[in-house]
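COMPLEX REQUEST
Ligand: adenosine-5'-diphosphate
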Amino acid sequence: MITLTDINFSYEKNRQALHNVSCTFAENSFSVIVGASGCGKSTLLRLLAGLEEPTSGALIMPPALSTFSTFSTGFVFQDPTLLAWRNVYDNIALPLKIKGLDKTSRHTRTQEALALVGLAERADAHPRELSGGMKMRVSLARALASRPRLLLMDEPFAALDEHTRFRLEDDLRNLQQTLNCTIIFVTHSVAQAAYLGERVLVMGASETNDETGDETGGSIKHILNPPAHQQDWRHNPAFHAACATISAALAEVEAA
Ligand SMILES: Nc1ncnc2c1ncn2[C@@H]1O[C@H](COP(=O)(O)OP(=O)(O)O)[C@@H](O)[C@H]1O
Ligand SMILES: [Mg+2]
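STATUS: Structure written out below.
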């Protein structure tokens, strides 16, 4: 269990990015964070990754997930950031080399990660030969190759076309069932939040004090639990109702 208690964070004085964020993330759960641009979603992921320290409050990670262990946390961004001159295999294996894994382990993990994302046949391809969806699969494989216990995903599918995005969403859900991994996924898409999340955390934007100009950071305003998937879920009225519930929560937060 990851526990955040009254986390505040400021990049600079008088400009708070996060305000009194308290929440927990159970082991092997799939949480989605949704909220308007600038409300602090990426900042929250950076704190969870140990890339930033809270200005105040407590962030408690289970020992197996120590933020100091570079093996335990994987990060996937919207931009796949692949090395153009390296093939798929090397793009996945290189970070493992940098982390000091021996050649046999690197090979095992790279093969395993390629299989998980369905790219075993494309190990020799270069990024320019791949579609946007495939590049994202490589990026995901690179994160999975370190066998993370925590996978942080920051709007990873936002640049993909809808058909590709739907496939990746289904694959990610299936992967999560087999991986021993906690996923925290940031999006600004309501439908994606409703589709992916076992739990959806709705964040509200930061507020500016008109008199002082001081900014109070974003915070978690609602925690919702979309229903379990049923047959033909994307076209199921219950799914559309879940989307409407999240939309209403976001609208309420934005009107506040
Ligand atoms: N490196 C930074 N330095 C200063 N301010 C930042 C930095 N990164 C983000 N911010 C500010 O912190 C707030 C939250 O940003 P961010 O976490 O990126 O929001 P989101 O991901 O929800 O769009 C915004 O006001 C943004 O301008
Ligand atoms: Mg962001």
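REMARKS: The radius of gyration is 19 Å. The chain has a mean pLDDT of 92.
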